[in-house]
Amino acid sequence: MPAIFASAPGKVILVGEHAVVYGRPAIAVPVTQVRAKATLTAAPRRPPGSLRLTAPAIGLDADWRDLPAEHPLAKAITLTLQATGVSHLPACDLRITSTIPVASGLGSGAAVTVALIRALSNFLGRPLGDETISALAFEVEKIHHGTPSGIDNTVVTHAKPVYFQRDQPMELLRVPQPFRLVIGYTGIASPTALAVADVRKAWLADRNAYEAIFDAIGEIARQARQLIETGQIAALGPLLTQNHEYLRQLDVSSPELDHLVKIALSAGALGAKMSGGGRGGNMIALVTPESETSVAENLQRAGAVSAISTSIAQKSP
Ligand code: PMV
Description:
Blueprint: E1 4-15, E2 26-42, E3 51-55, E4 60-63, H1 72-84, E5 92-98, H2 108-123, H3 130-145, H4 151-158, E6 162-164, E7 171-172, E8 179-185, H5 192-205, H6 207-229, H7 236-249, H8 255-266, E9 271-275, E10 282-287, H9 292-301, E11 306-312
Parallel strand pairs: 3-5
Antiparallel strand pairs: 1-2, 2-5, 2-6, 3-4, 6-7, 8-10, 8-11, 9-10
The protein binds (3R)-3-hydroxy-3-methyl-5-(phosphonooxy)pentanoic acid.
């Protein structure tokens, strides 16, 4: 039997992170330059039930039954077996590789989970649909994030720009006018769960103030959708920068992120903001074809470990 593999892209949140956890809308887009990949090969010489899991990037090489039940990869396997209704797992090797930096706001956890579920369900001959894959990945996200909104698993599963609001049906975004982002990585790994937990603490201490900021961010997401869907990309820039200010007020930015945002703006970006959980990880800059190179170069000169350029467009369904 030939090897079976599946992959899933990274993602960035364009607008609305953190507020999305509190029911406001947000927009996320796939980043196809980075991907997680899961490869499955049958291992007929080993007894049924044995699945050898290797993930070289995190030094993992183990039989999945030896992992704690709440290990994200073990949990993804258990959920896939349950969802496919397969009780006898044929012996196999499952290898996970990824070019998505971990804990950087690029959705690495969700992409690994989605690639794994997709590859394993295909291997078992019971391919799962996107809705189910996203729902199972959401369960695994709870281990990574504590109280995830569901935006990461949604955008990574569908690999298309999404307008997302908790407990609402996912909506794909129309992107009549493609646009470009430069993603600057601070090189600082920052677990999203910590930032999300800190925002929750602060919200519990002063609900009125935080609800007002969440409302303002939600309004930005609504306006951003309108602008993107009508092709008014230049007007999107100031909204991103305004969103960054609100994220600073939520205390999830960092001196490094603020610095890179400033650098991007002075290098000609239309707008810039941190993206994702914050405190480290990535920032994004909306660029024009004229400013793209200068923004990317200046970000790297100012300390960004990498500056990835990516195009946001609507893929045909
Ligand atoms: O995975 P990250 O770091 O891009 O962050 C996800 C976005 C948050 O709004 C901070 C959390 C969530 O679950 O929506």
